[in-house]
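Fold it.
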Amino acid sequence: MNRRTLLCGLAALSVAGCATSTGKKIPGPGSAKSGDRLAGLADVPVGGGVLVDTPGNGQLLLTQPTAGVVKAFNPACPHQGTTVNPPTAGEITCPTHKSGFDPATGAVRTGPAPKGLTEIAVTVTQKDVLLA
């Protein structure tokens, strides 16, 4: 191993350590498992949504387009990875370049995002939203 390889490896470990030590959540389910509770059903507003931290250091966007129907999406905008905002006025919006997404399907409505948000499967009980 040469000096450059060693230094690059140490730098990568240092950056990785900083990312995990800051407590920053990873877009998507992280290491959450099927059956993990994501939120109470009452915590997800009908016609709106909320960003939730998963038990596995991840973060998801939960929406409830109609009463009792909850959708989950990876909140990273497909354009540049910025965390999108929960829906307001019937649209999920990326704060960086204003891409708009459908809160019921995650489909892109306005660019520059090249595609919609990635849907994550969830199940809904009478009281809770669980990772499927």
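Residues 9 and 77 are 29 Å apart (CA to CA).
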